[in-house]
């Protein structure tokens, strides 16, 4: 659907006015032009906050091209703004898989110098269709699932260029995954259903950075939160944080809501659907739509119908019903507005600085997975403090010496 440019401008302006760290980087880029003559291809959720990142890169001299990182997460109004600004943008809300793949191919056809990826689909396309890196100086990766894929690529010895794991920076996962997914996944569920969390048994599958955020928010709304895990340490952490922990097979019969956020596949599948409580809501906040098995739902159900936007009812032979939200895709983007603006300020500031790092140093960096340079992580944190009205102490000279020495004890 064609977006509305006035609405789009309002959304982008609102985002930019709440992204002070990225805006400061944009102003520096405008004078320094670190991307002069370079093409940046980005596969991201195309919405207002992403537009702020794209415009910052363009201000730095980049020829920016964007494609959707998910068929359901596009904001058509933001797309209209980007196109009006002259940025080639391949994204339409609800696009077909063929359209989605064509967009990613177009990003590669642009012969990029720098890649910004979310889920590693563009990097995977480079590696499945090419034997050499071409002009590519390197790529940055936004999310946990993409980092897992890059690590596998690196381990197989096939990675063609340096990749920076933006997701693993402290200023990314401590805020974006935990507080961003925590708030926005719940927002997506509420928007899709208009139901009350208080009094519901809410099962959170995966107690990683995102799962911790979601579990805390659901508890804050009065949910009775149960955690499922495969990692014994994370399971203990969830228990010590005050949540019940049990296998999915035990959780499914008591669940009013199941939210997966694992980065894994088929976390909720046929054996769970067979014992699922009647009326259970099923949602996913993990990167790909494979965590709740739609195929198993379709195989087991005797009837299927949409019941309201973002909600599909599956009826089983014994009359029980399950409600799949947002087609099992990232619920915070499919039914909600994505992450809150402020956390994307941190994440996209890191993306902008990591892309600049690759533009400057990518050709001399080893073809492996790199951490975000610690000084960039710290620079984003330092720039973020005043935006929240915060000041912190500095080490005194005496303290600097003390923490640097091994000689001083009791
Ligand atoms: N919705 C969003 O906007 C958003 C934001 C950030 C991350 N993500 C995605 O969310 C997923 C999780 O990210 P994260 O940063 O929390 O990762 P993480 O690695 O910190 O945590 C994942 C957790 O899931 C657990 N897990 C794996 N398989 C499981 C299974 N079968 N059952 C139960 N638990 C299982 C792991 O042990 C781990 O503790 C990834 O796909 C990531 O890309 C989405």
Protein traits:
single chain, 410 residues, alpha/beta, eight-stranded mixed β-sheet, seven-stranded parallel β-sheet, 15 strands, binds nicotinamide-adenine-dinucleotide
How would you explain this protein's 3D organization?
This protein has 410 residues and is an alpha/beta fold. The chain has 17 helices and 15 strands. The strands form two sheets. The chain has an eight-stranded mixed sheet with strand order 9-8-7-10-11-14-13-12, sandwiched between helices. Strands 3-2-1-4-5-6-15 form a seven-stranded parallel sheet, with helices on both faces. Helix 2 runs parallel beside helix 3 and helix 8 packs across helix 9. The radius of gyration is 22 Å and the shape is globular. The termini are far apart. The mean pLDDT is 96. Bound molecules: nicotinamide-adenine-dinucleotide (NAD). Nicotinamide-adenine-dinucleotide is lined by residues 143-145, 173, 177, 181, 185, 205-211, 228-231, 234, 261-264, 267, 285-287, 330, 332, 339.
What is the structure about, briefly put?
By secondary structure, the chain is an alpha/beta fold. 46% of the residues lie in helices and 16% in strands. Helix 1 (5-17) crosses helix 3 (48-59), helix 1 packs across helix 4 (76-84) and helix 5 (97-109) packs across helix 6.
Strand fraction equals 15-25%
Number of strands: 15
For the CA atoms, what is the radius of gyration? Answer: 22 Å
C-alpha geometry: globular
Helix content: 40-55%
Associated small molecules: nicotinamide-adenine-dinucleotide
Low-confidence stretches: none
* Gap between N and C termini: 69 Å
Strand order of the largest sheet: 9-8-7-10-11-14-13-12
The residue-averaged pLDDT reads: 96
Biggest sheet descriptor: 8 strands, mixed
What is the structural class?
alpha/beta
Number of distinct helices: 17
């Amino acid at each position: 659907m064609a977006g509305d440019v006035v609405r789009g401008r309002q959304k982008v302006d609102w985002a930019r006015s709440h992204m002070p760290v990225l805006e400061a980087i944009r102003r520096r880029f405008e004078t320094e032009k670190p991307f002069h003559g370079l093409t940046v291809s980005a596969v991201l959720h195309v919405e207002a906050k992403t537009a702020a990142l794209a415009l910052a890169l363009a201000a730095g001299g980049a020829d920016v091209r964007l494609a959707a990182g998910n068929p359901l997460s596009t904001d058509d109004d933001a797309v209209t703004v980007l196109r009006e600004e002259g940025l080639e943008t391949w994204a339409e809300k609800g696009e077909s898989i063929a359209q989605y793949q064509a967009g990613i191919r177009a990003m590669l056809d642009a012969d990029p110098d720098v890649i910004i990826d979310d889920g590693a689909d563009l990097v995977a396309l480079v590696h499945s269709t090419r034997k050499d890196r071409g002009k590519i100086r390197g790529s940055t990766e936004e999310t946990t699932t993409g980092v897992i894929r890059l690590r596998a690529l690196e381990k197989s010895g096939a990675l063609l260029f340096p990749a920076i794991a933006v997701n693993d920076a402290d200023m990314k996962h401590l805020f974006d995954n935990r507080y961003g997914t925590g708030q926005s996944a719940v927002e997506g569920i509420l928007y899709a259903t208009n139901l009350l969390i208080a009094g519901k048994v809410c099962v959170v599958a995966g107690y990683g950075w995102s799962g911790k955020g979601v579990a805390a928010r659901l508890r804050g709304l009065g949910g009775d939160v149960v955690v499922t895990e495969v990692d014994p340490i994370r399971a203990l952490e969830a228990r010590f944080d005050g949540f019940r922990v049990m296998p999915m097979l035990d959780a499914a019969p008591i669940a009013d809501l199941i939210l997966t956020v694992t980065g894994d596949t088929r976390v909720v599948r046929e054996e769970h659907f067979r014992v699922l409580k009647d009326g259970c809501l099923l949602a996913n906040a993990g990167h790909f739509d494979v965590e709740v098995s739609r195929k198993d739902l379709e195989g087991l159900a005797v009837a299927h119908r949409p019941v309201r936007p973002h909600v599909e009812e599956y009826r089983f032979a014994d009359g029980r019903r399950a409600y799949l939200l947002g087609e099992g895709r990232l619920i915070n983007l499919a039914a909600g507005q994505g992450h809150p603006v402020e956390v994307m300020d941190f994440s996209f500031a890191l993306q902008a600085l990591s892309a600049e790092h690759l533009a400057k140093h990518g050709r001399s960096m080893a073809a492996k997975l790199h951490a975000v340079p610690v000084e960039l992580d710290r620079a984003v944190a330092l720039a973020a403090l005043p935006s929240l009205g915060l000041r912190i102490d500095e080490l005194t000279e005496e303290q600097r010496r003390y923490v640097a020495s091994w000689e001083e004890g009791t």
